[in-house]
Here is the input.
Amino acid sequence: MRRQPATIYRRDTTMKAIQAARGTRDLLPPETELWNHIEATSRRVFARYCFGEIRTPIFEDTQLFARSVGEETDIVSKEMYTWEDRARAQSEKAQSLTLRPENTAGVVRAYIEHKLGETGLLQKLYYIGPQFRRERPQKGRYRQFYQIGAEVIGPTSAGSESPLRDAEILEMLATLLDELGIAEWKLYLNSVGSASDRPRYVLALQEALKEIAPKLCADCQRRVQTNPLRVLDCKIPEDQPFIETLPKIAEFLDADSQVHFAQVCAALDACGVPYIVNPRLVRGLDYYTRTTFEFVHTGLGAQNALLGGGRYDGLSEAIGGPKAPGIGFAMGADRLVLTLQAQRESQNATAIASLADAYIAPLGEAQQVQALVLARELRRAGLRVELGDGSFRIKKSFEIGNRLARRIVLFGEEEAQSSIMTVKDFASGAQTKIPRAELAQALQQR
Ligand code: HAM
Here is the structure.
């Protein structure tokens, strides 16, 4: 039987070319080299602190985020990509699924699902991957963005509640940012108290807000009703003098939370990690208890948080698991890239060396296959090699070679027969003859 021909694609000149969806973008070379550098450096530092990698699904049951991040947060109430999955059978209810807006909830879900607490050891897990929030896109804020994060979680008997864990994570982050080459970061630190401190503070806040609410921006007026803690996050300059008058959470911490915070600060002092206590740092997720923190970079503009995190001692129980206190963070990889790019531009440094070691120019189409063989030899010796095109005139080969590589290796009939290669270094202009057997070694010398 003859098969129907497949759809024939015709060029439709009336149609606009399809673009990446709003808030998403393509990452292209050479920028992707910077991404790889950031990821590789993070993996190296995490390994030194004995973290292992976890990879959780990109989508989860919607309830997971509602019960952890919190129904009233901006993330859950406005920013999630949620859909009803098709029911498997007519009798079944369709399941609501959501693209993960963050990764902590998924990690804690996996911790519970795989009974990792039963090992009796602290679980130290890191992740690298995309997250999705339907925010208004701007510089440093995207709808698909990338986080590099880590969590330390375990039963209390494993020491998961210790303030030393908070300090160790913060000290690791200071080391990681230094190794990434991020200059001039600032660490803001606060305690949002225990699960019992918070309601007392929220009551006091609501009381104080009754008076000033009419003078605040429309967003804050809404937050007074839905989530009064969020008023402290307000960035509107006109609101700041009023917000300054609100009670501070530090005044509502119970004795245990006060001791915990003092011990975190003392351990950071001992390590020489600088920090600034910011009583207004409450963060946009509901699961936090006690320590919260953000590392910021002034060069980033409005979206200045390089990373954020904190302790979440009740999160496991909130999603149906055993008691498993934890602490973690997530870095915005997009913002690390922006910061490093800006630093490099201001230092006039070139992008990570993306030039190949050599460009092999076959002089004529007859030499192409042998030029491919030479490229194979050099690449197997570990060199970065671009292969030219035998149809190019020599002038064009030089022009293209100059854009792609540090040197050009001319490969004509004469070179093929004599096994003596002609190599030109673009920077110095020097032209040399090198026997083929010594070529790889010669090109390795920069
Ligand atoms: P978060 O503060 O929502 O915390 O996000 C952490 C970081 O992700 C931010 O500081 C920022 O660098 C980056 N980020 C967030 N949203 C965007 C966006 N739309 N575009 C670009 N970058 C963004 C969390 O996600 C928590 N899960 C962190 C955590 C881990 N807490 C405990 N463990």
In short: Residues 31-48 form the longest helix (18 residues). Residues 39 and 364 are 42 Å apart (CA to CA). The first strand starts at residue 52 and ends at 53.
